[in-house]
Design goal:
Layout (H helix, E strand, L loop, with lengths): L2 E6 L4 H19 L11 H8 L4 E8 L2 E10 L4 E9 L8 H12 L5 E7 L3 H9 L3 E8 L5 E8 L3
Helix pairs in contact: 1-2
Amino acid sequence: MDISLFKAGRNEAAIIHEMQIKAFKPLLDTYQDHETSPANESVERIVDRLNQFYTEYYIIKNMDTSVGAIRIVSKDNHTYKISPIFILPEYQGKGIAQHVLSIVEEIYNDAKVWELVTILQDHKLCYIYEKLGYQQTGQEKPINDRMTLVFYKKNLSE
């Protein structure tokens, strides 16, 4: 596995958008979160995020193939939020996301805290994050009767 990150700009918005739809469509089908699903976001929403001074997007590559993306949001006090990270369905389950998270921690080596939000009912995602040292904060946000968002934090300064 040859995983690398390519810093994205506005020119990559359409590529990110296309991959995001493919990656999140199975979750949308399962959880029916039509108002909040990244699969329903417009390309303009991604462009808006790319224009934010506190946001960086990276396209995830396996060899030379784009297989997903990750957005890093810089917050105060050396805190960073991952929102979102996604891998195309045909590349999921191969450890790519875990590898990407370790690369990101190297890039943002000043980080004291990492934050992310995922789906409480998706035990596979929760397991991966917990395996990597993320802990539930206790904060949850119900979206509908099928889905609840759960908030995670990883403290590196402890």
